[in-house]
Structure formats: structure tokens, C-alpha cells
Amino acid sequence: MGKAQSKDEEYSEEFQEAKRQIEEKGVAGAQAMMRETLIGWKDIKIKIGVTGNAGVGKSSFINAIRGIDDEDEENDDDKSGARAAKTGQIETTMKPASYTYPESPNITLMDLPGIGTPTYPDLDIYCERVGLETYDTFMILTSTRCTKLELELAQKIKSMGKSFFLIRTKIDQDKKNEKRRKKPDIEAMLKRIRAYLYEIVKDFGIREDEIFLISNHKRDKWEFSRLVEAILGKLPAHQKEALTLSLKILSKDVVIGKVEILRSQLWKASLIFHLTIVVESELYFRPMLDILSALSIDHDESKTAHLARSERVVLAFLGRRTEFFRSQLGLPEEDSDEFEKMKPKFQERMRKFYPNEEDESFWARCFAIDISNITSTCRPSGRLTKVEKILNRVLDEMQQLSLDLLDEAATHTQEPRTGDAKQSET
Length: 426
Ligand SMILES: Nc1nc2c(ncn2[C@@H]2O[C@H](COP(=O)(O)OP(=O)(O)OP(=O)(O)O)[C@@H](O)[C@H]2O)c(=O)[nH]1
Ligand SMILES: [Mg+2]
Known about the structure:
Belongs to the TRAFAC class dynamin-like GTPase superfamily. IRG family. Keywords: GTP-binding, Hydrolase, Nucleotide-binding. InterPro entries: G_IRG_dom, Immunity-related_GTPase-like, IRG, P-loop_NTPase. This protein is of the alpha/beta class and 426 residues long. The protein has two domains: 45-72 and 82-246, Rossmann fold (3-Layer(aba) Sandwich); 250-410, no CATH class. Helix content is 55%, strand content 8%. Strands 2-3-1-4-5-6 form a six-stranded mixed beta sheet, with helices on both faces. Helix 8 (224-234) runs antiparallel to helix 9, helix 11 runs antiparallel to helix 12 and helix 11 packs antiparallel against helix 17 (380-413). The two termini are 33 Å apart. Bound molecules: guanosine-5'-triphosphate and magnesium ion. Magnesium ion is lined by residues 58-59, 92-93, 111. Guanosine-5'-triphosphate binds next to helix 3 and helix 6.
């Protein structure tokens, strides 16, 4: 994720900007700027159009990919778009509605009305009314047979120079139907469906692996997680990072992708931390030293007080970062029901990720790291490297725990593993 060259460019660009901010507004300005770039992924806008015939499962897909239940009424009145999309057996979505990832309101999934309904019988009118040209990319959903209108829609999207994936929903229903046959062969059925669709869309330059067979009701089966990976792969680097960080944990690939991004951001996080310490010294330590010098009083006591303050800054910083990593990897809060349900061996490993800001011995106990060792390091580069090292270690252990939890869940439910690149179910 992210090419080395562009990361270097980005690094030096942001670094130059931080330097400029220090000159203009002092370290507090640079600190604010770095903090903004660190949470910048929340500001990148992506608009994905979800379209297709009426009733193929567009709204259900929008809920499934955001990890929201169709029946989730809790958020029904939520105007931010983080609510469940309405689904139903009759024509349900009458005009475009936008839905967002709960974690990232700027990633918009547009739930478009079905084509070819009495409300939108004509494709040109449909395209105009839903503003087809305003989307970055599309998901065309289909179930059972492909219709002429769906093909015309695909043609229209291609002619606008935009990309789309073809998603065949309701595979669970096909499986049920296949099982009623005398000699059911689910694998052969899946192949048949894929070959049928490929034959129809290959002239649009769609590759066979750009067709996805999914069930909105069973995200852990067939090709749902491969689809998520493919959507990420299509987006430019920044959008990909934004969407990855917004995803709920669906698979091992998502865990690994998130950790990779969090790791690539470590230098920014530790630079903020360093600037915080510098701000502390500027605001507190330096004026104090001046006063003490003026009064000809020994500095040592003040130095100790400053180090104690710095130590609190380190504890708070590491605590906040660890909490962010934990929420990114979908690991539960301490004392939550989810935590209570975990096996004791996992609970034990999780305890390392609930740092207590008041507990100075936490990092030494859990990660064999001496915090005072960091604060007493005066060289900024030494401080930065140490903080990055600690956070890297936290990420290593969190990634491993998340992967082990996914394995455990897969064994427990006896379902196919969600992280496999090509999933199939027989
Ligand atoms: N078995 C099964 N049913 C599905 C799946 N996806 C959607 N459905 C059902 O299909 C029906 C229509 O789903 P919607 O998500 O409302 O379909 P839509 O494409 O948004 O429909 P319109 O908005 O009317 O165009 C609902 O009863 C869903 O529960 C799926 O993957 N498997
Ligand atoms: Mg709908």
C-alpha cells in the first residue's frame, strides 16, 4: 500500500510544511498541522454508485458492506447517512439516497433506484435524474438473469470512461435451489453462473475476476471479502487508505491492510508526540528556567518536574494511539460484553491493550519498555525512534491477536474462512 517514492515525496512535503509552520506559528502550529494530516483520511471524498435492476439487493448490499444490519432501526433517523438502507420485497428505493461508512462520513455509497421500474422506465431519464456522471465508480448488481437494460446501463457507464464491478447477488438462494436437485453440485453451479455473466459482459472489457458472486445475507461466504479487496484495489492510494481505515473487520486481508496503513502513519504520530513535548518545554520548562536563572536558583528540581510532565505526555500519547489501533482492528472495549465472551487466553492477551494513563509501570510490565528512558532522551531523533518502536510492537501484537481471533471464529462456526482470496462454498 503506497509506493515508496510517493511516500518519500509525501514525507518531505509534509515535513517541509511542518518546518514552515514552526517558523510561522511556532511548534504549536506544526503540531496542529501534523494532527490534521494524521486524521486527514477522514476528509477524502469517494462516491460509489450502487445500481442495477429493481429488487436485486442494492440496498441490502449497502448495508452488508458497511457491516450494518438491514433491520438496524437504531440509526433510522440518523441524517448523517450512517443508518441502515431500507430493503424490501417491493420496489423500495424511489430516489437516490446516500449512505456513509459509520467511521468515515466522506465515503458515500449511493443507493440508486432500480432501473426499468414504472418510476424510471427509460434509461436516459434514469441516468440524468440520478446524475450518473457525478460518481467515481459503480457497482452494477444483478440477480438471476441479466436484462437488456442492465447491459445498456453497463454500456453507458463504460462510455463515460468510468469503471464498474458486476456483482451477482443472492447466491445463497441459488445454493438452496441447487440443493433441491437430485445431484446437487454447488461448485459447478457457481462456475455456470460466472461463465454466463462473463459471456454477457466480456465485450465491455470486464475481466472474469471483476465478476463477484455474493450473498448480502452471508458476508463471510463466497466472494464478499474478495469484492471488498477489489474495491480497495481500484481506488487511488489515498482513497484506498481512507476506505481501508473505514472498513469493519471482514477478513484477514482487511486486518493486514489496516495494520500496514497504521504502520505507515507511525512517523507522523510520533512527530506529533515529539512536538507535544517541545510545546511542553516551551510553555513550561524554558520560562521556568529563565526565572530560576534570574533568581540564581538551582535548576535540578524544575528539571525533575518537567520530566514527570513529559512522562505523563508519553503515557497519554501511547494510550490514545493504542486505543485508536484497537478500535481500528475492531477489538472490544475492556468490560464490554464482547470482551466478557472472549476465551480467557484471548482476554489475557487483550489486557495489554488497555493502558492506564495513571499506571506508570504498565508499559514496563506489558511490553518491557521503560517510559522514563524515552523522556530523558533529549535528541528528537532518539525519542521519535523509540516511540515508533513501541507503537510498532503494539501493532505487531494486535495484528497477531486479530488474526488469531478470526481463525478462532472460523473454527468455531465451521464456516469457510473469510480471509481466503478466492472463496467458494460447496
Ligand atoms: N436470499 C437473498 N436475499 C437477498 C439478498 N440481497 C437482497 N435480498 C432480498 O431481496 C429483497 C430486495 O432487496 P433490496 O436490497 O431491497 O433490493 P433493491 O435492489 O435495493 O430494491 P429496489 O430499491 O426496490 O430497487 C429483500 O427482500 C432482501 O432481503 C441476497 O443476497 N440473498
Ligand atoms: Mg433499494
